[in-house]
Specification:
The chain has 174 residues and is an all-beta fold. It has no helices and 16 strands. It starts with 6 loop residues before the first strand and ends with a strand.
Length: 174
Amino acid sequence: LNGESNLTFDGTTLNLTGNVNVSGVSTFTGDVSFGSTATFGDDDKLKFGDDADLQIYHDSSNSYIAESGTGRLRLLSNIIDLKNTADTAVFARFTSGGSVDLRYDNSTKFETTSSGATLTGDLLISDKIAHTGDTNTAIRFPAADTFTVETAGSERFRITSTGGVHFTNGELIE
């Protein structure tokens, strides 16, 4: 230190004005406060826990919050929004004691409710709709422009692409 140093000590607090370059590991006890911004370069990590179980970092392309411990990553809030970088659109909203909303173009398309869920728009299904407790009863989509109703694992009813209605007892209604 020299006479032009920006370092002062009043017997309790050490004050430094200017830049500090530190190499190696620095250990702090107590709170550490930043007056403005802490800046980290690509691939620099904030590590938490004795085994660095939680890490926050950015590589040159992506940003990460990585939890590798035996516990869970818990986000605590009454409302959690996943949003775009411009902070103008919500992708998903999780409301404590309320709904979970999934959105497309900032418009809710799927919302959980106290009695189930609400879907706004089309639901595309590749094969069938089945009941959780009775999976051999279903509405199926076996071919283009055709749907069937099955009970006890067998087809009971079919509407074909031509509009024909078929029942398994052989009855055909055109």
